[in-house]
Amino acid sequence: MTGLLVLAGTPIGDVGDAPPRLARELATADVVAAEDTRRLRRLTQALDITPAGRVVSYFEGNEVARTAELVEALTGGARVLLVTDAGMPSVSDPGYRLVAAAVRAGVRVTAVPGPSAVLTALAVSGLPVDRFCFEGFLPRKAGERAGRLREVAAEPRTMVFFEAPHRLAEALAAMAEAFGAERPAAVCRELTKTYEEVRRGPLGELAEWAAAGVRGEITVVVAGAPPVDPALLAPEELVRRVLVREEAGERRKEAIAAVAAAAGLPKREVFDAVVAAKNAAGGPRP
């Protein structure tokens, strides 16, 4: 018989949020794979339990090699428990590779539900939660980050992002540029911890606030794009928007991409509108 892979959610702050089943799984698993074994030790001490099984590390640096080892244990009948530093494994944390490998090997995968920074931030944000999407961490490089944000500028669902505190101000400024400075958002800091803070407001104001420096674990919730007036999708309006961005110093390629993202249109459609306008005016092709 094959074993069982258990993904266990761990507290994102207050250890009192740990579900009773987490303690049982930690105490009885054959193997406990932890993103940080030191943090696991602090958690087990707080829960007053001692893992009976073998404890191994499982993090980004050894994920590839350790996955094969854990799958071998699973196919041999072991019960393997996977925990990350906070929240649910595989959600912007190690785990996806192991889950995929276990599924391919015919191993059953289950989970111990637990606290989630994504859902907690959504719940306290004050923004619509009937439809949402999780975008994880944005790229670190400014150009790649701007490109990612342009891709979701027309997303109608509420969006949730993770961000490092030292990059928060830059990320919020980039969001204000891509989505508009007035787009409502909430910055959720240190959720469930002693210094929990939820700062709500337009992206432009939040970017100014964050410029002074912010500490702690950060989750950002941003309202989805409002419905677009059909009149704003007319070719002449698309061209006008591209010209405005060009006059502000943006390159035409980036301007077309930004206008297309904001309108929820393919870039080719905006490009064709610009070409047609240039041809009609007797100017050179863009």
Descriptive report:
- Helix 6 crosses helix 7 and helix 9 packs across helix 11.
- The protein is of the alpha/beta class.
- 42% of the residues lie in helices and 18% in strands.
- The strands form 2 sheets. Strands 3-2-4-1-5 form a 5-stranded parallel sheet, sandwiched between helices. A 5-stranded mixed sheet has the order 6-7-10-8-9, sandwiched between helices.
- The protein has helices at residues 20-28, 37-46, 63-75, 96-104, 117-125, 142-151, 168-179, 203-210, 235-247, 252-263, 267-280; strands at residues 4-8, 31-34, 54-57, 79-83, 108-112, 132-137, 158-163, 184-189, 197-202, 218-222.
- The relative contact order is 0.11.
- The protein has 11 helices and 10 strands.
The number of E-state strands comes to 10
Over the alpha carbons, how many angstroms does the gyration radius reach? 23 Å
- Strand order of the main beta sheet, please? 3-2-4-1-5
The run of helices and strands is EHEHEHEHEHEHEHEEHEHHH
Q: Helical residue percent?
A: 40-55%
Derived from helix and strand composition plus strand pairing, the structural class reads alpha/beta
Net shape: elongated
Average pLDDT reading: 92
Would you identify the regions where 5 or more consecutive residues have pLDDT less than 50? none
Distance from N terminus to C terminus (CA atoms, Å) equals: 64 Å
Number of contiguous helices:
11
Biggest sheet record: 5 strands, parallel
- Residue fraction in strands: 15-25%
